[in-house]
Write a structure and sequence with these properties.
2,3-Dihydroxybiphenyl 1,2-Dioxygenase, domain 1; alpha/beta; about 30% strand; four-stranded mixed beta sheet
Length: about 120
Protein backbone atom coordinates (compact mmCIF):
# COMPACT_ATOMS: atom_id res chain seq x y z
CA UNK A 1 0.00 0.00 0.00
CA UNK A 2 1.28 3.45 -0.89
CA UNK A 3 -0.34 6.16 1.26
CA UNK A 4 -0.15 9.56 -0.41
CA UNK A 5 -1.19 11.71 2.58
CA UNK A 6 -3.87 12.12 5.25
CA UNK A 7 -7.12 13.51 3.81
CA UNK A 8 -8.93 14.29 7.06
CA UNK A 9 -9.29 13.63 10.76
CA UNK A 10 -12.76 13.22 12.29
CA UNK A 11 -13.57 14.68 15.70
CA UNK A 12 -16.78 13.71 17.54
CA UNK A 13 -18.81 16.54 19.03
CA UNK A 14 -22.07 16.82 20.98
CA UNK A 15 -23.14 20.37 20.03
CA UNK A 16 -22.39 21.15 16.40
CA UNK A 17 -23.21 24.87 16.57
CA UNK A 18 -21.00 25.41 19.63
CA UNK A 19 -18.18 23.36 18.10
CA UNK A 20 -18.26 25.13 14.73
CA UNK A 21 -18.02 28.48 16.51
CA UNK A 22 -15.16 27.26 18.71
CA UNK A 23 -13.06 25.86 15.85
CA UNK A 24 -13.75 28.83 13.58
CA UNK A 25 -13.68 31.71 16.07
CA UNK A 26 -11.72 30.56 19.12
CA UNK A 27 -9.17 28.25 17.51
CA UNK A 28 -9.20 30.46 14.41
CA UNK A 29 -8.94 27.81 11.71
CA UNK A 30 -10.52 28.38 8.30
CA UNK A 31 -13.87 26.67 7.76
CA UNK A 32 -13.97 25.14 4.28
CA UNK A 33 -17.44 23.57 4.28
CA UNK A 34 -20.69 23.63 6.22
CA UNK A 35 -23.61 21.24 6.61
CA UNK A 36 -23.84 18.00 8.57
CA UNK A 37 -20.04 17.51 8.52
CA UNK A 38 -18.36 20.91 8.79
CA UNK A 39 -14.77 20.92 7.61
CA UNK A 40 -11.80 23.00 8.73
CA UNK A 41 -8.35 23.28 7.17
CA UNK A 42 -5.46 22.59 9.53
CA UNK A 43 -2.31 23.97 7.97
CA UNK A 44 -1.39 23.00 4.45
CA UNK A 45 -2.24 19.30 4.33
CA UNK A 46 -4.97 18.07 6.73
CA UNK A 47 -8.67 18.73 7.09
CA UNK A 48 -10.65 18.25 10.28
CA UNK A 49 -14.29 17.13 10.07
CA UNK A 50 -16.68 17.60 12.96
CA UNK A 51 -19.00 14.65 13.37
CA UNK A 52 -22.10 14.45 15.50
CA UNK A 53 -22.29 10.68 15.99
CA UNK A 54 -26.11 10.87 15.89
CA UNK A 55 -25.81 11.85 12.20
CA UNK A 56 -24.34 8.42 11.45
CA UNK A 57 -26.64 6.41 13.75
CA UNK A 58 -24.12 6.21 16.59
CA UNK A 59 -23.83 7.59 20.11
CA UNK A 60 -21.19 9.95 21.45
CA UNK A 61 -18.90 7.54 23.30
CA UNK A 62 -16.47 10.11 24.58
CA UNK A 63 -13.83 12.47 23.42
CA UNK A 64 -11.06 11.78 20.95
CA UNK A 65 -8.26 10.44 23.18
CA UNK A 66 -5.20 10.89 20.95
CA UNK A 67 -3.76 14.38 20.70
CA UNK A 68 -3.93 16.14 17.37
CA UNK A 69 -0.65 18.07 17.14
CA UNK A 70 -0.92 21.48 15.50
CA UNK A 71 2.50 22.67 14.34
CA UNK A 72 2.93 26.39 14.94
CA UNK A 73 5.86 28.75 14.43
CA UNK A 74 5.99 29.83 18.08
CA UNK A 75 4.29 27.76 20.79
CA UNK A 76 4.48 30.53 23.40
CA UNK A 77 2.90 33.12 21.09
CA UNK A 78 0.18 30.74 19.87
CA UNK A 79 -0.60 29.72 23.44
CA UNK A 80 -0.85 33.35 24.55
CA UNK A 81 -3.19 34.10 21.64
CA UNK A 82 -5.47 31.16 22.43
CA UNK A 83 -5.47 31.90 26.15
CA UNK A 84 -6.62 35.41 25.23
CA UNK A 85 -9.58 33.78 23.45
CA UNK A 86 -10.46 31.72 26.53
CA UNK A 87 -8.71 28.43 25.77
CA UNK A 88 -7.52 26.67 28.93
CA UNK A 89 -4.31 24.66 28.72
CA UNK A 90 -3.48 21.54 30.75
CA UNK A 91 -0.35 22.48 32.64
CA UNK A 92 2.72 24.32 31.48
CA UNK A 93 4.28 24.09 28.05
CA UNK A 94 6.31 20.87 27.99
CA UNK A 95 9.86 20.81 26.60
CA UNK A 96 10.92 17.30 25.55
CA UNK A 97 14.45 18.50 24.64
CA UNK A 98 13.41 17.95 21.04
CA UNK A 99 10.16 19.89 20.81
CA UNK A 100 7.72 22.10 22.70
CA UNK A 101 4.14 20.98 23.39
CA UNK A 102 1.21 22.81 24.98
CA UNK A 103 -1.92 20.68 25.56
CA UNK A 104 -5.53 21.87 25.44
CA UNK A 105 -9.02 20.54 24.68
CA UNK A 106 -12.02 21.56 22.62
CA UNK A 107 -15.44 22.03 24.31
CA UNK A 108 -16.12 18.24 24.13
CA UNK A 109 -12.73 17.33 25.61
CA UNK A 110 -11.05 16.27 22.34
CA UNK A 111 -7.31 16.61 22.86
CA UNK A 112 -5.03 18.93 20.93
CA UNK A 113 -1.55 20.30 21.34
CA UNK A 114 0.42 23.19 19.98
CA UNK A 115 3.69 21.71 18.79
CA UNK A 116 7.05 22.85 17.47
CA UNK A 117 10.10 20.69 16.93
CA UNK A 118 13.29 22.67 17.44
CA UNK A 119 15.94 19.93 17.33
CA UNK A 120 17.04 18.54 13.96
CA UNK A 121 15.62 15.15 13.03
CA UNK A 122 18.16 12.35 13.37
Amino acid sequence: MDIEHVDFVSVPVTDMERSVAWYRDTLGVPQTSEGAFPEFKLGDNVFLYLIDPKNIDQEFEGRHQAHIALRVLDVAEARKELEGRGVEFQGETFDTTVCLMAHFRDPDGNQFMLHRRYAPAE
